[in-house]
Amino acid sequence: METTRKPKKIYIIGAGIAGVSIAREIKEKPVLGEVVAFLDDDPRKIGTSIMDIPVLGPLKDVHTFYHKVPADEAIIAIPSATREQ
């Protein structure tokens, strides 16, 4: 008997060029999963959507967002981020 697997739900951390490129790639290849939200610290992006994907807010609030929009994994898409960040 074959079971149907649900696509994994993904957060993309960073709603800039890198994050949008990754989201586009995932949308083109649904077998990779489904992007359910971006997390970004830019107040101009928070509350908007990109490619019909909501930008929820800063990473520091991930626990709050997780209860509203759960995800299985996160992809960090901030090329300029330091190791500490």
User: For the terminal residues, how far apart are their CA atoms?
Assistant: 45 Å
Which stretches are low in confidence, meaning pLDDT under 50 for 5 or more residues running?
none
Tally of DSSP β-strands: 5
> Describe the biggest sheet?
5 strands, mixed
Concise overview:
The chain has 85 residues and is α/β, with parallel strands linked by helices. It has helices at residues 17-28, 62-68; strands at 9-13, 34-39, 49-50, 53-57, 73-76.
Write the layout of secondary structure elements.
Layout: E1 9-13, H1 17-28, E2 34-39, E3 49-50, E4 53-57, H2 62-68, E5 73-76
Parallel strand pairs: 1-2, 1-5, 2-4
Antiparallel strand pairs: 3-4
Mind explaining what this structure looks like?
Helices cover 22% and strands 26% of the residues. The protein is α/β, with parallel strands linked by helices and 85 residues long. It has a 5-stranded mixed beta sheet, with helices on one face. The chain is globular and about 35 Å long.
What descriptors fit this protein?
globular; 5 strands; 2 helices; 5-stranded mixed sheet; 26% strand; 85 residues; alpha/beta
